[in-house]
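Posting for a labmate who doesn't have an account.
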Amino acid sequence: MSRYILPMSIAVQTRGLDRLAIGLSGVCLVHCLATAIFLGMISAAGGLLGSAFIHEAGLGLAMIVGTVALGRGIMEHGFMMPSAVGSLGLGVMAGALSLPHDGTEALYTVLGVGMLALGHQLNSIAGE
């Protein structure tokens, strides 16, 4: 019995979306860490890197790619856990936007990004 519900080409596309989403999570992680470092070293960098627009746009992009990749994963392999883990990560990231900029926001954003990346990794493994 085949373990693929959908044709193989869709499974490959879903893995590609998961890899893209993991890469975006890595970019977000680098952005958050770079912002914290630059804010500590050069206060002027905080105006650009710490702007609310960048955080909101990044979260919006993460939600779009995450919804598509994790949703397609559910349709492909039928496992909900990867989507649940990834959705929890997105929720933590969204909640972090409401926190003060005293390091708490960055901490919760990094935690959420890690959870989202874990969800995409689990989704990719389940699709193999």
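Reply:
Got it, the structure tokens are right above this. Residues 51-128 form one domain.
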